[in-house]
Design goal:
Elements lengths: L1 E5 L1 H7 L4 E5 L3 H12 L10 E4 L4 E5 L6 E5 L1 H9 L30
Antiparallel strand pairs: 1-2, 1-3, 3-4, 4-5
């Protein structure tokens, strides 16, 4: 499966698009290519986004936040939620995704 990988912060720092197309399992090779293209030492953070050609899902990892976010169809979401090896929570489009979101463990801004 062809997947696009995008290094957003690095693109802003180094200029130019840092968008790569590779197979789904090639994230480490893409990382090495992005490092070589930018001359980055140590390696770049990212990629922040990955998605397939058909845009049926997107993964976002923001290293300033605490989670990875997956947008996908309901069937794929059900499979992720059913996987006992993953910590997965469903969220709505208006859900907080910063450090103030965790009201269960007492770190949310509105936690009492």
């Amino acid at each position: 499966m062809a997947v696009f990988y995008y290094f957003g912060l690095a693109a802003a720092v180094y200029g130019g698009p840092l968008l790569y197309r590779a197979t789904a399992g090639a994230s480490e090779a893409v990382q090495r290519r992005a490092d070589a293209d930018t001359g980055s030492r140590p390696h770049l953070n990212g990629p922040e986004y990955a998605w397939p050609l058909d845009r049926s899902w997107v993964v976002n990892t923001d290293y300033d936040l605490v989670s990875t976010y997956v947008a996908c169809d309901p069937l794929f979401a059900e499979r992720l939620l059913a996987d006992a090896t993953l910590e997965v929570l469903p969220v709505s489009l208006d859900a907080r995704v910063n450090e103030g979101a965790d009201e269960v463990n007492g770190t949310g801004y509105d936690h009492r």
